[in-house]
Amino acid sequence: MSAADEILDIVDEHDRIVGQAPRGEAYARGLRHRCVFIQVRDASGRLFIHRRTPTKLVFPSLYDMFVGGVVGAGETYDDAALREAEEELGVSGLPRPVPLFKFLYDDGAGQSWWSAVYEVLCSSPVNPQPEEVAWHDFLPEAEVERRLTEWAWVPDGLAAFSRLRQHRGASGG
């Protein structure tokens, strides 16, 4: 089954399930669905950063400061976060990602999805999926901040990163 054929829950503005559709149709028709964003740090506190492959359905070849993806039909956000983190990092036995907050992402051009943001510590060596990740590294947060204006980033990841900084500022850490 291709990624475009994966069945997603379609949700309303309150994150209530209102139907199901294949991922390709959800993207093409701008149907609101669910996604997870997982910020990954190594034992030194550096952030996992990667560039998406040019074959990705959404935001090909752009940089991202999260791993993650869509929540499958009938899947919980928490289960999707662990599955996506392990798949994209190429590791098993990760601790369960810690949920931080949810927000409704809207690109202003007809694409919208509920986004659950998580964090996880990855102390294992990573082996990212070559079909998902074209380049990767763990970078100090200060370097990521410097790169925000230099590299082309996925817009939903930038929105999640901005909200995460606000969340951490509001919670004192």
UniProtKB/TrEMBL annotation:
Query: What keywords tag this UniProt record?
Result: Hydrolase, Magnesium, Metal-binding
CDD domains found in the cross-reference section = NUDIX_Hydrolase (cd04697)
Record: residues binding Mg(2+): E84, E88
Look up the record and name the cofactor or cofactors this protein needs: Mg(2+)
User: Which Pfam families does this entry report, sorted A to Z?
Assistant: NUDIX
> Nudix hydrolase domain: which residues?
31-171
Per its record, what are the GO molecular function terms? hydrolase activity, acting on acid anhydrides; metal ion binding
InterPro entries named among the record's database cross-references: NUDIX_hydrolase-like_dom_sf, NUDIX_hydrolase_CS, NUDIX_hydrolase_dom, NUDIX_hydrolase_YfcD_pred
* Annotated family: Belongs to the Nudix hydrolase family.
What is the protein named? NUDIX domain-containing protein
Q: What is the lineage of its organism?
A: Bacteria, Bacillati, Actinomycetota, Actinomycetes, Kitasatosporales
